[in-house]
Amino acid sequence: MGLPEERGRSGRGSRAREEAGARSWARSWSPPPEIIRCAHVPSQQRYAELHRLSVENPQEFWGDIAKEFYWKTPCPGPFHQYNFDVTKGRIFIEWMKGATTNICYNVLDRIVHEKKLGDKVAFYWEGNEPEDTTQITYRELLVQVCQFSNVLRKQGIWKGDRVAIYMPMIPELVVAMLACARLGALHSIVFAGFSSESLCERILDSSCSLLITADAFYRGEKLVNLKELADEALDKCREKGFPVRCCIVVKHLGRAELGSSDSPSQSPPLKRTCPDMQDKPKGKPKRIWPQISWNNGVDFWWHELMQDAGDECEPEWCDAEDPLFILYTSGSTGKPKFEGIPTHPDVSRLWSVVDKYKVTKFYTAPTAIRLLMKSGDGPVTKHSRASLKVLGTVGEPINPEAWLWYHRVVGDNRCPIVDTFWQTETGGHMLTPLPGATRTKPGSATFPFFGVAPAILNEAGEELEGEAEGYLVFKQPWPGIMRTVYGNHERFEATYFKKFPGYYVTGDGCRRDKDGYYWITGRIDDMLNVSGHLLSTAEVESALVEHQAIAEAAVVGHPHPVKGECLYCFVTLRDGHIFSPTLTEELKKQIREKIGPIATPDFIQNAPGLPKTRSGKIMRRVLRKIAQNDHDLGDTSTVADPSVITQLFSHRCQTIQ
User: Fold this and answer.
1) pLDDT for 333
2) How far apart, in whole angstroms, are the C-alpha atoms of residue 11 and residue 636?
3) Which of 202, 442, 510, 538 fits a 20 to 30 Å CA distance from 301?
């Protein structure tokens, strides 16, 4: 594994754009005075003091924060212990082991009963259509969580059991997660854009005994029949000898019919207006009536189970080191919760939501920012956005061009941008500006968050001081760090700790400038970041070679103006097969079915041969250069057959950067 290629923070676009971005890096923005006045950390000096305390005396720093939570029993032993060095034994991280609490009790019961804030809105929900909205108070949420906790208990779910959640962003998703936490059951979140095969694999990975899903939902104008996908996944589980005993289904698109005498074994037609493509744009819409299949004895309607459930449920008191949830590495949350896509029914939707709810903090991905930039300033500026105070980005490095547009247009040159770097594995921000303390530079994640001790290593594992570029690692744990890969601790150790013993290895490259600012330069392992979703090249390659026409495949990332990265695939055909547009579409369809739509390649190139070392290892560094039509290949002396490179360049796909 080599060091990341030099490409600047943006990681995309032409050399001219990179140079333009580089000029922007020299500029910095101070926190606005109105933000400083109300900030928890109002200066860089105060940040430095708190960060030093959090790294040098974590017990004092995190101990003070722990006092804000309710603990059924206090920590009986060491406040924290860990080992990051695989040469010294098993990797482990423990914080306040032996202390007991319940996170659901802390975020609901205490707010309602101790703080008397039961009538305060916990969250607003905005549906796919602007008129589909609701809100829920803390008291209402507590009641629903207790009811669903009782539903789960009646279905035989107890502490330590695993529950798969395959749902769109609807209010019941929050209820389901908190109910699992209340019972001490682990919930495994599966992104609703994943295929049935991906859902099946994730159910099997953690032996989930119960699945929670929904009938269907819309993303813009696209209907996703989630129940159908769930049924396919459960069929696959049964075929593999693991029948899931219960599937609880939220009647999301069928909410309008809940007052009628519906049979639990049949779903009424789902009603939702959809433009008739045969009509004029403002013609009368027609309705889509998808049917929902039902498996008696396995499927149960959420609303019917909730009708008979009690509204009180004692929480399960859990050890601070008991597992809480299982996540696959990619995801983000927002408030208000938002179902659909940011451009439906038009590209002004997000700013309409901002004005409607008087949103003060707006957090999104660079992918969404670049998408909205394509429509110009008008859809943004026609809305007030006066309530906005802080802007945030997450999921991938943001290029300076997008940062500057976000700051100038969305934030009216008055809102600080919190460009956060973190991973699902880290459980929280690792590098981030603080809005009231940090001078920001477009494209830089700036400085480490509290408790985080970063370092930049070279290939030999030596820490680099001052201005440097190399591997981003962390030297000590923080409370939110993942504890293991479920059921495969060896993989956990090999993935995150083996390459550089004594450090948590992020898998990202990083540059530190002369002012000490950190700049994420991109993934240095075999992962791709597509629209904020991390995809394994090995998983995509595996899906490709399952096609009967494909003998070998290699997948690399290619810069994309909206998604950040897209997939560029090289495929070698088996004898007797011909590369054609039909085959290309078959391969894309296979990837969508095996992994999900997010993994659909933008480019698939016929590759009679692949550049390999004499030992047979595919040289992905060279393939990335070919995909980007960059003839500066560096050292190719180890390529077994250099003629392959020439052939691939001459037949590469036409791409736009």
Assistant:
1) 26
2) 23
3) 202
